[in-house]
C-alpha cells in the first residue's frame, strides 16, 4: 500500500510498445495497434469479459488533447509604438528590441513554432490617428515552423510610430494561436496601454477563463511603476511571468528566457474528463490510460495556518481485477515558478475507496512555502495490489478486489489557490503474475554505481517539459542542452528487469547574467508510474550560475525486479516495474528581483546490469501491462511480458477507439469494463478487439511478441 508522503524533491522531505512494433513493419504495427487483444502471453486470443456489469447508457469517446509534437506554439508581441523611438537603450529602444528578436530567432531550437505580431507601425501618435492606431496590429509571421530568414527579414522592416493597443494585441495573438492545447504569448512593451478599453489585464483574465492552456509572459522594457503593474497583472492572470529589462542587453536576455520558458513549460495532456463532486454512478469510469481534468481552486488564502484545507475535490471510478496491481497517479503542475514567495501549501491527495466510502489506499504529494523549486509539479501515485492475502493485511478485507473502485482526488493548500490547475490522471492495471524462479526482492539499498564519465563529444538535446515528452537518452552517450532558472527538464531511460541506472549532470556554461550568488540545481528519479525512486544523489544540490561547475551524480539503489513490490523496504518497492525511468533536472529561482537566466549543462546516463528473467503473467488475466507513454518510445524491438501498443502523438483514430470515458461505468467501445484504454503517447491502457479479421492477425502478433516474455527483452512494464 502507498502511504501519504511529501514530495521527496522538497528540501524539507525526510528523505514508460510502440518501438517494439517498429521492427515488425508499419503494416504489422498498425494492425497490432488496432487489433491487439487484452490478454496475457499465455492466454488464448479471445476477449475476456471482466466481472463488471455495465449500465445501459450513452458513452463518450473523447479525443486526446493535442500532444506536444515539437514545442508550444508561441506568439511574440512586440511594441512598436512611438515611445519605442526614445534613444535611451542606449540608442533607440526599437533598435534594441529588433536586435533582441533577431538574436532570439537565431538561437531558437529548430522545432520551435513561433509567430510575430507588432503594433504601432502603421500610424502616428496624434489624437486624430487614435481610432486607427488602436487597431493597428499586424501579424508579420503567423505561428508555424521556425523560419529564421523570413522572420529576420520581417523584423528588419519594423518602424515605430503609433499607439499601444496592448489589450487588442493580446486578443489578436490569442486568435492567431491554435484553439486547443498549450500555447503562449510573450509580450514586450515599454509602457502602458494607450487604447483601453479593453483593459489589458481584463483581456488576459478573459483569455485565461477560456482554458488553462494559454500562458502570457511579459517583459517591461524601461517601464515606469504603472506600466510594470499592468504588465505584471497580465502575466499573473494567466500563470505567466514578468521581467524587467533596463537596457538592450537585459532585454535580449529576458526575451530569450521568456520564449524559452514559453515553448517548454510543463505540458499537461490526456483524454479530457470531468470528475463528479460526489461519488455516484455518474462518476466517469477511467479505463487504463491517461486523462486530464481541471481543478479550479485550492484552499482560501491564509487557511493553511489552521490546518489542511481542501479545495476542488472530484471522484472517478476504476476497474478492479483480483490479484492485479492497480496504479493511479495524479500530477498537478503549478502555474509558474514563484520567486515572490507566495505562502501556503500546494498539494494533491488521492484515495482509493470502496463504493461504501471505506478507505482502501491513499497517496499524497505536496510542498509548502517558497523554496525556489516551486515550479515543479506535485505527483502522487498509488500502487495497490488487489489481493487480501498478498502481503497479508496490506489490502483491507473490507475493500473490493473485483468490480469497481472509487478514486477520490483532492487539491489542497492555499499556494496558487485562486488559480485553476490541470491534473493528469494516469490509470494502469498490471495483471497478477507467477513469481516462481524470479530473483528475490531487494532487502537493502546497494552501494552506488561508478560515476558515468562525460564523453568529449556531446549530442545536442532539448530536455522534455514533462513526463509526456521526456527526451530519450542512450546509455553511455553524453548530451548537451540548456536550462533556465525556474525550469525543469525531463529525460527518459529504458530499464529492463535486473538493471540499475546511474547519471552525471554538470553545468558547463557559459551562463548568462543572472543570480550573482548562484542557485541550486538537483536531479530526481521517477519510475514508469511516476513514483519517486531512491537514488544515491536524491538529496544532492549543486550550485549553478556561480562560475564553478556543479556536478550532480547518483544511481538507483536496487535493480528493477517484479518481486521488489514485496520488499520490506518501502523505498525499494518503487523499482518493481520495468520500462521508462525518468530523470528530472530542476533549477532553482533566486527571488523576484533576480533576473531569469540560462546556462548550458551536459548529461550522461549509464544502464548497468544484465537483463534478468521477467514475470509470466497468469493465464486468464483480463489485461496486460502496456507500452511506453513517452512520445518517444524506448529504442527496443521486443517485449518482456507484454504487447500493448502505443500510438504516437496525434493518432486520433486509434485514440478514438480507446481511452474511453463513460459517465456510468460502460466502456465507450465494447461496453465492457477493463478492455479499453487511452492511446497516444499520453498513456495507452488495454487495447480493444478491433474486429474478427484484425483479431486473428493481432493475436498472431501478440503471440510473436509475447513469446519472448521471459528472455530478458526490453522493458514494457505498466508505464505512464
Automatic annotation (TrEMBL):
The chain crosses the membrane at residues 685-706. It holds the Pfam family VWA_2. Residues 73-259 form the VWFA domain. PROSITE patterns: VWFA. Residues 1-43 form the signal peptide. The keyword Transport does not apply. It comes from the Bacteria. Residues 620-683 have a biased composition (Low complexity). Residues 608-683 are annotated as: Disordered. The keyword Nucleus does not apply. Keywords: Membrane, Signal, Transmembrane, Transmembrane helix. This is Ca-activated chloride channel family protein.
Amino acid at each position: 500500500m502507498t502511504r501519504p508522503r511529501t514530495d521527496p524533491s522538497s528540501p524539507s522531505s525526510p528523505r514508460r510498445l510502440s518501438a517494439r512494433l517498429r521492427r515488425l513493419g508499419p503494416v504489422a504495427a498498425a494492425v497490432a495497434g488496432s487489433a491487439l487483444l487484452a490478454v496475457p502471453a499465455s492466454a488464448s486470443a479471445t476477449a475476456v469479459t471482466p466481472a463488471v456489469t455495465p449500465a445501459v447508457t450513452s458513452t463518450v469517446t473523447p479525443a486526446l488533447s493535442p500532444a506536444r509534437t515539437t514545442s508550444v506554439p508561441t506568439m511574440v508581441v512586440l511594441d512598436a509604438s512611438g515611445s519605442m523611438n526614445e534613444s535611451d537603450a542606449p540608442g533607440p529602444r526599437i533598435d534594441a528590441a529588433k536586435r533582441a528578436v533577431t538574436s532570439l530567432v537565431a538561437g531558437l531550437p529548430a522545432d520551435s513554432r513561433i509567430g510575430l505580431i507588432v503594433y504601432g507601425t502603421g500610424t502616428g501618435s496624434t489624437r486624430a490617428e487614435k481610432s486607427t492606431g488602436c487597431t493597428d496590429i499586424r501579424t508579420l509571421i503567423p505561428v508555424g515552423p521556425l523560419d529564421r530568414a523570413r522572420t529576420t527579414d520581417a523584423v528588419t522592416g519594423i518602424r515605430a510610430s503609433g499607439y499601444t493597443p496592448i489589450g487588442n494585441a493580446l486578443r489578436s495573438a490569442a486568435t492567431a494561436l491554435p484553439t486547443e492545447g498549450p500555447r503562449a504569448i510573450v509580450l514586450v512593451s515599454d509602457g502602458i496601454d494607450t487604447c483601453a478599453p479593453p483593459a489589458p489585464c481584463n483581456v488576459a483574465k478573459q483569455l485565461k477563463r477560456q482554458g488553462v492552456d494559454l500562458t502570457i509572459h511579459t517583459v517591461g522594457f524601461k517601464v515606469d511603476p504603472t506600466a510594470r503593474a499592468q504588465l505584471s497583472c497580465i502575466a499573473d492572470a494567466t500563470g505567466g511571468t514578468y521581467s524587467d529589462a533596463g537596457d538592450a542587453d537585459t532585454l535580449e536576455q529576458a526575451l530569450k528566457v521568456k520564449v524559452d520558458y514559453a515553448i517548454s513549460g510543463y505540458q499537461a495532456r490526456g483524454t479530457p474528463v470531468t470528475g463528479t463532486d460526489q461519488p455516484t454512478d455518474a462518476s466517469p469510469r477511467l479505463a487504463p490510460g491517461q486523462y486530464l481534468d481541471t481543478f479550479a481552486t485550492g484552499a482560501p488564502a491564509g487557511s493553511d495556518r489552521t490546518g489542511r484545507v481542501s479545495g476542488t475535490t472530484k471522484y472517478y471510478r476504476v476497474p478492479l481485477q483480483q490479484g492485479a496491481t492497480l496504479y493511479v497517479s495524479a500530477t498537478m503542475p503549478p502555474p509558474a515558478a514563484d520567486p515572490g514567495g507566495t505562502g501556503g501549501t500546494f498539494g494533491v491527495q488521492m484515495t482509493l475507496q470502496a463504493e461504501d466510502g471505506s478507505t482502501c489506499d491513499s497517496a499524497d504529494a505536496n510542498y509548502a512555502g517558497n523554496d525556489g523549486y516551486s515550479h515543479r509539479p506535485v505527483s502522487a501515485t498509488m500502487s495497490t495490489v488487489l489481493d487480501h492475502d498478498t502481503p497479508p493485511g496490506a489490502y483491507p478485507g473490507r475493500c473490493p478486489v473485483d468490480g469497481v473502485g472509487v478514486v477520490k482526488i483532492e487539491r489542497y493548500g492555499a499556494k496558487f489557490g485562486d488559480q485553476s490547475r490541470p491534473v493528469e490522471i494516469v490509470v494502469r492495471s498490471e495483471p497478477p503474475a507467477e513469481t516462481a524462479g524470479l530473483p528475490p526482492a531487494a532487502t537493502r539499498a546497494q552501494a552506488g554505481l561508478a560515476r558515468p564519465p562525460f564523453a568529449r563529444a556531446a549530442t545536442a538535446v532539448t530536455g522534455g517539459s514533462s513526463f509526456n515528452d521526456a527526451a530519450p537518452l542512450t546509455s553511455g552517450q553524453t548530451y548537451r542542452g540548456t536550462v533556465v532558472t525556474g525550469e525543469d527538464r525531463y529525460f527518459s531511460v529504458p530499464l529492463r528487469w535486473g538493471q540499475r541506472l546511474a547519471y552525471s549532470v554538470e553545468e558547463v556554461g557559459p551562463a548568462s547574467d543572472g543570480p550573482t550568488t548562484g542557485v541550486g540545481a538537483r536531479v530526481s528519479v521517477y519510475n514508469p508510474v511516476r513514483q519517486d525512486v531512491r537514488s544515491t544523489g536524491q538529496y544532492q544540490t549543486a550550485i549553478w550560475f556561480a562560475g564553478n561547475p556543479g556536478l550532480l551524480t547518483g544511481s538507483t539503489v536496487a535493480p528493477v525486479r517484479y518481486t521488489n513490490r514485496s520488499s520490506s523496504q518501502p523505498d525499494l518497492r518503487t523499482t518493481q516495474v520495468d520500462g521508462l525511468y525518468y530523470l528530472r533536472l530542476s533549477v532553482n529561482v533566486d527571488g523576484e528581483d533576480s533576473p531569469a537566466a540560462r546556462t548550458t549543462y551536459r548529461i550522461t546516463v549509464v544502464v548497468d546490469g544484465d537483463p534478468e528473467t521477467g514475470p509470466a503473467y497468469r493465464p486468464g488475466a483480463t489485461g496486460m501491462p502496456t507500452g511506453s507513454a513517452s512520445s518517444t518510445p524506448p529504442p527496443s524491438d521486443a517485449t518482456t511480458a507484454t504487447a500493448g501498443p502505443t500510438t504516437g502523438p496525434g493518432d486520433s483514430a486509434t485514440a478514438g477507439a480507446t481511452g474511453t470515458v463513460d459517465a456510468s461505468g460502460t466502456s465507450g467501445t465494447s461496453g465492457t469494463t477493463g478492455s479499453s484504454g487511452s492511446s497516444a503517447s499520453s498513456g495507452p491502457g488495454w487495447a480493444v478487439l478491433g474486429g474478427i479479421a484484425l483479431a486473428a492477425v493481432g493475436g498472431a502478433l501478440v503471440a510473436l511478441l509475447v513469446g519472448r516474455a521471459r528472455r530478458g527483452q526490453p522493458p514494457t512494464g505498466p508505464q505512464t
